[in-house]
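I am still getting used to backbone structure tokens and would like to learn alongside you. Label the sequence line and the structure token line clearly, so we can match residues to local backbone shapes. Go ahead whenever you are ready, and we will take it from there:
>
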Amino acid sequence: MKNRLVLSASMLSAALLSTGCVEQRVSRYPSLQPRPIERRSNAEPVAAASAAAIPDPSLDATLVTYAKTLATTDTGFTPAADAAERAVRAARGDTPGGERWIAAQTALAKLDSFRAATSSAVTDLDELAIGRARDAKPPYPALEALHARGEAQLTAEVNRIAAIQAMLPGK
């Protein structure tokens, strides 16, 4: 019986010791293996080729109207700017509030009306482009080209007005 008890005790201790050699499934330390989130790609998704803009007759008609507005303001602005420049040069010896100075201010105000019409057209073209983007429509090349032309015209007008105003006495 004593042998049996020793044999049972030795088998029990061997069984308990052998469990220490078995791989532990739960660890107190984190695994160094990459987690699933670390295996995913952070690359930007490839965008599908943008669809070509479908011709839009109503938008084309609207763009023709804005193109005419920009052409009209451009045609009228240049001679008005030349006249304003002459008026400002004539007002150089005049004091602010004098007759020639007021004539120069009036000519500058006329330039501002052309600039305002150009700015309004560019703003409307901006709104058309924003509306197309909001509706998930592809860019419309004619709209983009006219908008770029309007922006360039507006920038040129603003710069020319600023240059003429800088020449005005009392500034």
